[in-house]
Amino acid sequence: xxxxxxxxxxxxxxxxxxxxxxxxxxxxxxxxxxxxxxxxxxxxxxxxxxxxxxxxxxxxxxxxxxxxxxxxxxxxxxxxxxxxxxxxxxxxxxxxxxxxxxxxxxxxxxxxxxxxxxxxxxxxxxxxxxxxxxxxxxxxxxxxxxxxxxxxxxxxxxxxxxxxxxxxxxxxxxxxxxxxxxxxxxxxxxxxxxxxxxxxxxxxxxxxxxxxxxxxxxxxxxxxxxxxxxxxxxxxxxxxxxxxxxxxxxxxxxxxxxxxxxxxxxxxxxxxxxxxxxxxxxxxxxxxxxxxxxxxxxxxxxxxxxxxxxxxxxxxxxxxxxxxxxxxxxxxxxxxxxxxxxxxxxxxxxxxxxxxxxxxxxxxxxxxxxxxxxxxxxxxxxxxxxxxxxxxxxxxxxxxxxxxxxxxxxxxxxxxxxxxxxxxxxxxxxxxxxxxxxxxxxxxxxxxxxxxxxxxx
Length: 457
Known about the structure:
Elements: H1 2-19, H2 27-38, E1 48-50, E2 53-58, E3 61-66, H3 77-80, E4 88-94, E5 109-110, H4 117-126, E6 131-138, E7 141-153, E8 156-161, E9 173-175, H5 182-195, E10 201-207, E11 210-211, E12 214-215, E13 223-234, H6 239-244, H7 248-264, E14 268-272, H8 276-297, H9 308-317, E15 327-334, E16 337-347, E17 350-358, H10 368-380, E18 387-392, H11 396-399, E19 404-414, H12 417-438, H13 440-454
Parallel strand pairs: 8-10, 17-18
Antiparallel strand pairs: 1-2, 2-3, 4-6, 5-9, 6-7, 7-8, 7-9, 10-19, 11-12, 13-18, 13-19, 14-15, 15-16, 16-17
Helix pairs in contact: 4-9, 7-10, 8-9
């Protein structure tokens, strides 16, 4: 076999020399002629140097460079010639083994907070055992990781971002130096269908178009704008600048008034959870407040399904001793009692508010949530963070701070006929929701009717 390969290579070299017998005098002309030879031998799998020609095989592509050290135009191949990257290989990894995929990502990688290894692993162990990772590898190194969970919607099985409604501002884990084409992404979902033919649809919702200067490659596929936007603040490392954009005097006046209320009530402090007991106490209070609020509004409690609360307890507890925690809890404590709790996450120069809750007690009129936001935004201006995102959803208190409105996007990949039909239904529903939410009068009426019909006093 080796003798045959060597003979084949020798024949290829001879043919290449005949085709390039009169090379151009310019280096660029030489590169052009060599490129023409290159396309003739894409099936050759042999690496050697014969008679000044370097023939190098890299799995699929064969690169041929004409090397003539006596020529004044000689350059090493890597100086002026762009080498093709190795083809990407799709891998579908099910269960807890999927969490190990992130270990191979390099320092140039990034992801949304909900697309990290810890999020995926904790979600798999607490909330949904049917989780998997759809990944692209360059040789043996992962360069693209899409963490998914499979849920059932009636007769349809849908793969969504692991975390369901709690996964927001989504962005797949990827290497920033790697380029991804539509065909490579299509091949990934083809492989997913081969491994999991029971999945009808991949529905990727509330995605960011950009994160940390990198574009979301999934938006090369057919996508539509989600009904929910993400509102954010440009921090500029200057709190006075942030305040000056929207009603600075009113904000400072309200903050002084609230400060007096809290001091008169027994004193206050802002607490950042640094122990497991603090995360447990903060989350326990938040879950109670959240359940009460959504019940009154007639909204489904997304924290109620089995395992969700345990997931958040583990996620935040695991970060308490981290030097730079990706997930963090903060609370406003007045007279020794928590009055407001917010959960936040970090990714590439941005912080995202994942949730906030307040106690419905005698100090609720002092706006503890607004007070906690004021303090947290001010603290964030003293860091290297560039963007403070309020996450998904449009609320007046967010508008009072923000100077950036970031659209989010949905991508759906139908794997079966049943999946295509369900994708059509979801797209129609999303368009209806978007129209309702864009009309302030209609949206206010819908919330009022929902509260009356489904709310609990």
